[in-house]
Amino acid sequence: MDLRNIAIIAHVDHGKTTLVDELLKQSGAFRDNQAVAERAMDSNDLERERGITILAKATSVEWKSTRINIVDTPGHADFGGEVERILSMVDGVVLLVDAAEGPMPQTKFVTSKALALGLRPIVVLNKVDKPDAEPDRALDECFDLFANLGADEDQLDFPHLYASGRSGWADAELDGPRKDLSALFNLVVNHVPAPRQIKHQGEDFSMLATTLGSDPFLGRILTGRIETGTLKVGATIQALSRHGEKIEQFRVAKIRAFRGLGQQDIDIGEAGDIVSLSGMAKATVADTLCALAIEDPLPAQPIDPPTISVTFGINDSPLAGRDGKKVQSRVIRDRLMKEAESNVAIKITDTPGGEAFEVAGRGELQMGVLIENMRREGFELSISRPQVLTREIDGEVQEPIEEVTIDVDDEYSGAVIEKITGARKGDLAEMKPAGAGKTRIVAHVPSRGLIGYHGEFLTDTRGTGVLNRVFHGWAPHKGTIPGRRAGVLISMEDGDAVAYALWNLEERGKMFVGPQAKVYQGMIIGEHSRENDLEVNPLKGKKLTNVRASGTDDAVRLTPHVNFSLEEAIAYINDDELVEVTPNVIRLRKRHLDPHERKRASRK
Q: Which parts of the sequence belong to the Tr-type G domain (predicted)?
């Protein structure tokens, strides 16, 4: 059977996973009466809740005697480590672009990686049946994007289709029959080359491991594309590191190939197919699995370096251990090491003392997803404010810069530009009308300046603005960027918060806790209306007397308190504060200070 390996690239919410659903249905991967969940490829709970793809996943469909392996790539740059590995497995890419929005920053990030690998894209203009769709403008913007990214003539001469993933059709013409996706299937078969073999290594088996999984019965599972030769179940092969060092020799226990949404055991894996192998004990992502006669590893795609770091520590608050079962530092360390093994974009280092771990990654969203997964697994953690990683070149300190693309109503554009180019030290790169009373702003802003900005941005734009960011490059350090201006309200007592006390504290600022919430000394219960921190008593009840008179009893009507999401809490805190994360609760608190330090901090 002929083979084609393709990746689907799209910005967040441009309809990529929905299109894959339709490809699976129309290729006959499901029975007619089979119940299939919407966005079947988003198998992870967090992916379904947030509507984004986090993990790269493969599936396989058959179309007229051709097997097409389809890889669904994440649309967010924070999960770019997944993208860079996965593109080495495919021979072509389908770029899915919303006909109304055009190519967006995350599209640019993944497309630049695909073009650098020499892959020839197919452009699919999705959602052309929406009333605000402008497919011709979106197509022109795609051409401009490819040209700016240094595409060669073959890549610039790309075919394109008009489609509606939700309705399940794709046509070469905008006013086509709009029946099914056969035009897309045929274009993939005709435009994408069959897998090519690396000739100079002969016909011995070789494969580059690109994703790592685990199974309770099979143990470690490595997935990748077979570059050369064939492999049989029971064969003895070896694993080489990217530097050519021999890691281990093992017997292949199982070979599984993607068939529809599931995987199927096969006896022989052939060159070009994407398969999963089990039987290894140490081999991991970016290692070469090959025949014993091969000495040189396959070239592994380099991964962009991490840009931010967060400290994961044990939860040492007075309420530690009440919600979660996994609280010891060694258990946290084992879980983080397991994550670093399967996610090459994350780096873990121990801090002095061994009770906290420095986790470096791509962005706040990637860190937030890791922490959210851990809290659902029963971990309790204390998390520090994200710190941006810098590097030194020729004695000059450089910091990561992000390209921020903002779509905002015209009336709010002034406030947004003032914020990002003022205190946050951004440079305005482009500003143009985006139609329908909106303005598109493109700016290059230091990563430090974007920590904690999203909530402020939503307030400035009354919730109507859309902000997208992607790593742009490195630039000389831009100096001090001011953090949060307001101080916080800190509990001075342990116990359950009282509604009457919180009501009296409302004039001091916004509350982060409600009545009956567990509080303790040093816990942050609100934001002060001034710049200094203030210790308050949220347990102070009303003095009761036996005198009752009309008008002396005020009804306690509390303003709803602020309920932080995990990412909002991490972005909100200052350097001397921590986020306490448990399976059920997110709290903010001050770092533990001795009495002398506390006095000095209160004076400041």
A: 1-196
